[in-house]
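Action item from last week, closing it out:
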Amino acid sequence: MTQAIGEIAKKLVAEHNDGTKFHRLDGINDLADAYRVQDAYVAAIIGENGTAGYKIGLTSKRMQEMCGIDQPIRGSVFTNRVFGSDVHLSLADYHHLGLEFEICVRLGHDLVPNGVPFTPESAGAAVDAVAAAIELVDDRHADYSVLHCETLVADNSWNAGIVVGPFVPPPACMEEAEGIAYHEGVEIARGRGADALGHPFVPLAWLANHLAASGQILRKGDVVMTGSIVTTRFPAGPFNYRFDVSGIGSVKVSGA
């Protein structure tokens, strides 16, 4: 099976290089297989870069039901794919760029398992700062009507980077924080911290437990994207977006 995992990862690398449309990959039978492929795929493309943290996806019950699973998913964020606010992107660098509007958290100390599952409270206690953020996803023109969740996970859960605003201390009642997305200065959508499974620390606790199950941990300085609270946007031409989160701050991204 190890050889098969490596071959699937190589296929993913080749398909990204060739611009192949996202499709279901054979040989990935469950989420455990999917994460093994993801780890091999990340190892194959990360080069001399490190990882800055993680993205968490499918943090709404509706999206989980659409994908036929009962939990969120994770992917790695590379250090060279972390951008500050006001970055200008080139659409040509992506196959099909999507923008997801989220709350990003930063760990102030390691989350070391102690035999007791992490809770939103215990995981959240490790957070020293939060920021308004936009995840960059590249779905390679996926057909969502036949989306294969395991292949999505294997493909590093589509993470192509993150754009992060200034970090600030976590506000109280983060579930009540309101996020408003603007395109060219015009409001297009809004959401709340509670749209990420009730509170951004809920998916964070899930991630900490998910990693602990495979002997990994969240470390001091890791950044974690806690899940989209506004519908994904796919710019087809020049764009300028801003995302404001009450009590947290703002982040901007543009491109052409």
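Closing note: The chain has a mean pLDDT of 96.
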